[in-house]
Structure formats: C-alpha cells, structure tokens
Write the structure tokens for this entry.
Amino acid sequence: MKTYTLHQGSTPLLISLPHDGEAIPDELLPRLTASARRVPDTDWHVARLYAFARDLGASMLVPEYSRYVVDLNRPPDNVSLYPGQNTTGLCPLVEFSGAPVYREGEEPTASEIEARVELYWRPYHQALAGELERIQREHGRCVLWEGHSIRSMVPFLFEGRLPDFNLGTAAGHSCSAGLRDRLVGVLEAQADYSYVVDGRFKGGYITRHFGRPQQGIEAVQLELAQVNYMDEESFLFDSDRASETRAVIRRLLEAALEPG
C-alpha cells in the first residue's frame, strides 16, 4: 500500500511535509465525526506551496494519509512534545478546535494504534532516515526542512494570532548556529511578514529526533500561518498570496543550502 511519495533530488536538502496528507481509510471514515471527516487540521497545500523546491534540487517526502490516522510528527510512545500545554497526540482524539475526532465509543484501541504505527508511521520514518543517509553520503551533509502550516488563530493551542513565519530549531539544538543565523537574517531582511524563532512551535518529533548538527544533519521546522497563502475557512489555495509567501520560503531554502 502506498503511504508516501519520495522525490529524490540532487542537493543536500530534504523537505518533509508530514501533515500534508488528507486520505482517510474507508473503514475508518464512519467512525469519525462529520467535522473530522473534513480533516480540518491538515497542513493544507504545503506540497503545492513547496513544489518549486524541486527546481532547487531538493528531495521531498510527502505522506498520503491524514494526521488523524496517525501523526507522523509525534513520537511512537506518544510522549507530549509540549508538556503542560494543549496539544494533540499520536492518534489524535481531538481537533485543534478541541472538538472530538471520533464519534462516541469509536476511539482507537491501544492495539489499533500500534497497528497504525506499523502501517503508516514506521514506513515514513524509514524513508526519511534512508533519504537522509543517502544525501549525507553523497554530499557530506544534509539539511532536513520540516514544512508545516496551521490556522493563524487556534485558541485551543495558543493565545492570539500566530506570527506569519515560525522557525523551530529545538532551541538551537537541531541545527548549527550558522544555519539558524542565516535563516533569521532572511526574515530580518523582509518587512512584509511577522516571525519568531523557537516560539510556540520549536520543532516537532522529526526535527528533534533527526537534527544532529554535530553529525552533519541539521533540521529546521517552519510553521506557516495559513492566512498567508490560503483562505482558512474554505481551505482554498490563494495563488496571489502564495506567490509572495513562496518568495520568502525560497530565500530561506537558498540560505539553508549555503555551506555552513
């Protein structure tokens, strides 16, 4: 069963988009609430937003299935990435709104969660690890770019409006200081978007687990406020807004490709 698509590029850059998937298995759909069947917490259109990166020689890994099936950016033991804060788990039971994902009594059992990890989570992570190994072997280094997006206002998760660009480097542990400084420099050089580094979103499991700058693998997460490239109510892509946002993302990726 196809659970992801991997495009292999020619430069030391791998873009992972773990929440781009929208598919729900047919047998699971009847168990979800009407709201959850719309998969509202998808990182909508990020594969389309980042499609240009193939021209930069980037590799790209994109899942088929929704985070409601299993969240590829959570640890397999479901330990919270943000202790003390509202968040969603490995197999989310609530939406970002706080509403239930499942109809009453239809939540997944522990054995079902284990099966989903084996069927969906593990293949993605094996592909990710394998591509990182290939890139590092060929280039001597690798930058893993975690592309994410979220509604600009989600009271269940954070107060107020989220900055437009949210860079996460696990508080500086998942990448070198040089890469972090170059990316901050790109954001400081523009005046159209607000930004923060290691704010509410410091990087999820993939960034924290794979980012090993001392070993030549650097990892960065970019969480975008969706209002900058789409309509957050209808989920429709906005080409005009996306074009301007994409230009900044391009400069960030070009900075990531610069030798450290």
In short: The mean pLDDT is 95.
